[in-house]
């Protein structure tokens, strides 16, 4: 659980309700801080008035997430507060970077970069995408590395990770990037001083690598002593046997040390590298499948950022769907916007289906009718509840239907005055007719039966 409550935060605010933060009072600000809608610095009196110094320091101490949030090109990595999503929520979905290398044929490299850039799967109202490109220096040749990097910069706006343990290569990469922000992979015990200097100069997050937790903690402490804290942790990824067990144990121990013990050297995002599968497995399909399950497994073990190699949809689909599910905020049902949605090419005599704005309900209905029925769907704002819970909680009512018909001007879309409501909401039919003046047809209990229902019942109306 988070270490502090709303009241703990409130007690550390000035308590004057001056509204300088743009909210009505300090309690509203405390709630906004708890939900990360405001930053402590948004309370100006707290930071400008020295009387509040002690409160300010205490607030900053408790409010900072257990795992530092690293931001690169707008991409947020880490920032987590709990071990289990149900205790609060997970904030920043695992960032997925796909690797390319500087020994690839330039045409192949550009093709892969474009595919990474444009990759998108639409599911339950969201576009599932990839977050970045990791450029590996295989050649150890700064010129080749720079040329490959220029190709990436020209063909993608995604954040870039520069991968080499050679500080000279990273320096060339950093200069080539110009204004583009990037992540450096990686500092180890032998190169960390030079890497920290480059990271400081370019304000680039730095991955710190060691293959035991003890060595990793010592190294991050040294990096912090050099005045740098935008750190990402890598304790090594091993895809098989005892190495895999060690990888999982290490990642869980790191996250527990950060959240349960607030152990400063490990309070950073964790990087996992499932692409190592390709070093062990030479069969293409097997490598894709192994990379897919390793990435899924490590996402469940708190990987905040991952490097993958494959761009195959069949491999990425399960990873991205898992990520979408893990990083859904359990406090907020997944919703679509209320309003009138067109399915196919409806006209003024087409049916109007009524449903709720719980995303799963809407997309189930939409998928069941798509390519089968041209119609409109009137989506009601039931605060993200499905039909039955919305009815039980009095969120789906005849008044709500009336409000939405008026607000979204349903009468501009169709000439008829018929609504098809879900079979589960049959008990509202009389009241809806009374309040709206529209005739109600009670639809099937199961939305998969809608096309058949419309074919039979809608045609009887003989509207066109
Ligand atoms: S600016 Fe600070 S003191 Fe003023 S209302 Fe907001 S939280 Fe309270």
Oligomer: single chain
Strand content: 15-25%
Q: Shape, please?
A: globular
The helical percent reads: 40-55%
Pairing-aware structural class of the strands and helices?
Answer: alpha/beta
CATH architecture of the largest domain: Alpha-Beta Barrel
Radius of gyration over all CA atoms, rounded: 27 Å
Across the major sheet, the strand order is 10-9-8-7-6-3-12-11
Using DSSP, what is the number of strands? 17
* CATH homologous superfamily caption of the largest domain: Dihydropteroate synthase-like
The figure for the number of domains is: 3
Number of helices: 18
Distance between the termini: 60 Å
CATH topology of the largest domain: TIM Barrel
Mean pLDDT rating: 95
Q: Mind summarizing the main beta sheet?
A: 8 strands, parallel
Detail the poorly predicted runs: none
Assign the CATH class of the largest domain: Alpha Beta
């Amino acid at each position: 659980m988070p270490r502090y409550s709303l009241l703990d935060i409130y007690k550390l605010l000035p308590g004057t309700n001056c509204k300088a933060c743009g909210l009505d009072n300090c309690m509203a600000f405390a709630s906004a801080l708890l939900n990360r809608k405001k930053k402590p610095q948004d309370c100006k009196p707290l930071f400008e008035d020295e009387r509040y110094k002690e409160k300010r320091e205490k607030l900053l101490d408790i409010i900072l997430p257990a795992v530092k949030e690293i931001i690169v090109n707008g991409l947020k990595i880490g920032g987590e507060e709990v071990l289990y999503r149900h205790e609060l929520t997970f904030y920043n979905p695992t960032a997925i970077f796909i690797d390319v290398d500087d020994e690839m044929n330039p045409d192949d490299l550009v093709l892969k970069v474009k595919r990474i850039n444009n990759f998108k799967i639409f599911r339950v109202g969201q576009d599932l995408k990839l977050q970045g490109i990791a450029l590996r220096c295989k050649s150890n040749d700064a010129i080749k590395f720079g040329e490959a990097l220029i190709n990436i910069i020209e063909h993608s706006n995604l954040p870039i990770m520069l991968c080499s343990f050679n500080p000279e290569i990273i320096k060339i990469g950093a200069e080539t990037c110009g204004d583009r922000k990037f992540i450096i992979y990686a500092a180890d015990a032998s190169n960390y001083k030079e890497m920290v200097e480059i990271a400081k100069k370019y304000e680039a997050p730095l991955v710190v690598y060691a293959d035991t937790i003890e060595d990793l903690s010592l190294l991050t402490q040294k990096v912090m002593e050099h005045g740098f804290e935008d750190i990402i942790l890598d304790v090594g990824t091993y895809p098989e046997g005892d190495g895999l067990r060690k990888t999982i144990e290490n990642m869980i121990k790191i996250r527990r040390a950060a959240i349960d013990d607030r152990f400063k050297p490990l309070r950073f995002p964790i990087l996992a590298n499932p692409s190592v599968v390709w070093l062990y497995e030479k069969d293409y399909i097997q490598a894709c499948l192994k990379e897919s399950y390793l990435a899924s497994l490590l996402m469940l073990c708190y990987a905040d950022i991952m490097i993958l190699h494959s761009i195959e949809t069949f491999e990425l689909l399960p990873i991205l769907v898992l990520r979408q599910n893990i990083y859904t905020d359990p406090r907020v049902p997944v919703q679509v916007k209320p309003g009138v949605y067109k399915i196919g090419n409806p006209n003024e005599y087409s049916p109007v289906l009524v449903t709720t704005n719980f995303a799963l309900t809407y997309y189930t209905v939409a998928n069941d009718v798509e390519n089968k029925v041209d119609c409109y769907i009137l989506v009601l704002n039931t605060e993200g509840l499905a039909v039955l819970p919305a009815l039980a909680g009095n969120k789906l009512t005849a008044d709500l239907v009336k409000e939405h018909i008026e607000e979204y001007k349903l009468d501009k879309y169709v000439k008829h005055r018929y609504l098809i409501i879900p079979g589960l909401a049959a008990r509202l039919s009389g009241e809806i007719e009374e309040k709206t003046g529209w005739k109600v047809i009670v639809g099937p209990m199961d939305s998969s039966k809608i096309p058949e229902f419309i074919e039979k019942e809608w045609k009887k109306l003989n509207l066109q």
